[in-house]
Design a protein that fits this description.
CATH architecture of the largest domain: Alpha-Beta Complex
Family: Belongs to the zinc-containing alcohol dehydrogenase family.
Protein name: NADP-dependent alcohol dehydrogenase
Order of helices and strands: EEEEHEEHEEEHEHEHEHEEHEHEHE
Structural class: alpha/beta
Organism: Metarhizium album (strain ARSEF 1941)
Keywords: Metal-binding, Oxidoreductase, Zinc
Radius of gyration: 20 Å
Pfam families: ADH_N, ADH_zinc_N
Largest sheet: 7 strands, mixed
Helix content: 10-25%
Length: 335
């Protein structure tokens, strides 16, 4: 049967373009009618590409591919979410060992299926990278979890940190405010580092156990060392600032999407056994665990809503660029 859809695309000039397209579902794909889509800072990297935008989509399945119900348990009417990946191969050793986010031949946002995006009316999506949304999570809250939430949860879930460990979180923004909630609800001490005191009350309300600023880092002896450091700020900080508050063998997760080099010497890593760990969007298994945990513990983003229109997208993106978003933007499809 297939579906005709509208989608908002980038362009060489960076202007948002409304386009149309048509999709028939492949054998292992489903058609999803989009109701909400989170706005991620990473989207801006693609605004100068001729491609569909948006990768934190939530919607309802309206059509199944010929084999979709054979290789999955999805059915018509299911409320589902999708993120950075369109499809995992399912056969490489990384997929088979639970690390599908490092699949050797995935289909991803920005490189595949560029005719469509979650800033649109419908998408066709492979069931390997599609996730049922628990009833306890509202659709408007689910979108930001599909990338932002999955990114911070994945670092915590795979790092080996345990309840009682101290998790340092740099920044109280789109990623940071979710990291605070996940860490605290997992039984860890969420230790927040921010550039100013303006977000102290907000951080504590999200579940932070301690809050420090640059002035506090100037006297690191007053800060108990952290076992893991999640960098969620919009700009990569000078890591040397944080060395004095890192416990031996601490793990550093630079979750900020940046092309700038990280300034570190091997001596810094050797002497204390620090580890810098690359980590991005969650694997399929970790994504499912994240959604289940968020539903059980009532974790949700603080959001601002905008209409899923060209004007709404432009307004939301401008607010994000200006650093005024509190804390994740969500585009809502017209009813």
């Amino acid at each position: 049967m297939g579906v005709c859809f509208t989608v908002f695309k980038g362009s060489k000039t960076g202007e948002i373009v409304e386009a149309t397209g048509r999709r028939d579902p492949g054998p292992t794909e489903v058609i999803v009618k989009i109701s909400h889509c989170g706005l991620c800072g990473t989207d801006e990297h693609f605004f100068h590409n001729d491609q569909g935008l948006g990768h934190e989509g939530i919607g309802v399945i309206t059509e199944l591919g010929s084999a979709a119900d054979v290789v999955s348990n999805f059915k018509l009417g299911d409320r589902v979410g999708m993120g950075w990946f369109y499809k995992f191969c399912g056969t490489c050793k990384y997929c088979l060992n639970g690390f599908s986010n490092t699949c050797v031949s995935p289909q991803c946002y920005g490189s595949h299926n560029q005719d469509q995006g979650c800033f649109g009316s419908f998408v066709a999506w492979d069931v390997s990278a599609l996730f049922k949304i628990p009833d306890a999570i509202a659709s408007e809250d689910a979108g930001p979890l599909m990338c932002g939430g999955a990114t911070v949860f994945s670092a915590l879930h795979t790092s080996g940190v345990r309840p009682g460990d101290r998790v340092g979180i740099v920044g109280v923004g789109g990623l940071g405010h979710l990291a605070i909630q996940f860490a605290s609800k997992m039984g860890m001490d969420a230790v927040v580092f921010s550039s100013t005191t303006s977000k102290k009350e907000t951080a504590l309300n999200f579940g932070a156990s301690e809050f420090y600023t640059a002035a506090d880092l100037a006297e690191p002896g007053n800060v108990e060392k952290v076992d893991i450091l999640l960098i969620t700020s919009s700009v990569m900080p000078d890591l040397s600032t944080y060395y004095p508050v890192l416990a031996p063998r601490a793990q550093i997760y630079p979750l900020t999407a940046s092309a700038e080099p990280i300034n570190v010497t091997s001596l810094n890593l050797i002497m204390a056994g620090f580890r810098i760990v690359g980590s991005g969007v969650a694997s399929a298994g970790t994504m499912q665990a994240m959604l289940a945990f968020a539903a059980k513990k009532g974790i949700k983003p603080q959001i601002e809503k905008f209409p899923l229109t060209k004007d709404g997208l432009v307004e939301a993106m401008a607010r994000l660029r200006e650093g005024k978003m509190r804390y994740r933007g969500v585009l809502v499809a017209p009813q």
